[in-house]
Amino acid sequence: MRLAVLCSGNGTNFENILRSCWEDEVVIMIHNVENCGAVERANKFGIPHCFIEHEDEDLMIMTLKAMDIDLIILAGYMRILSKKFVDSFDKIINVHPSLLPKYKGLNTIQRALDAGDTVVGCTVHYVTEELDSGDIIYQGLVDVEPNDTVKTLTKKIQRQEYSILPEAIRLIKTNANT
Question: Does the annotation mark 49 as catalytic?
Fold first, then answer.
């Protein structure tokens, strides 16, 4: 599959995709934060990338359409996409640090701790115009230990994301080929 990855931050999930999904081709990484860590990772792996402000969705749509993308992956892309953007593509997925449908949006780990949850995790889901509301593709569970903090759980959940995101991509590819 021809993949596009949208990033806003460090790009650890982006690098994980590059390392784990070697049978697919990441043809572009678009970032909406000019000097985010994902840029260094793209340069390290020789992946074309470009900065496009999130307000310029028409340019993003045009760029991605020109690249003939099969799957768009939001990997730490910290913006809500418009209905126009979502409707422009067949498959867009996101990795979210909660067990959806619980804790949509931001501060998910703190909210889970405040609620006394004993299990947290992450979800790969299809993107719709509603925040974190698309069909669930894959989830990974993380047990909450008594001494866990937002910081320790963030690391545990990120490790789960590194596992489930490539699996979700493989599942989408398998379903597309059947």
Answer: no
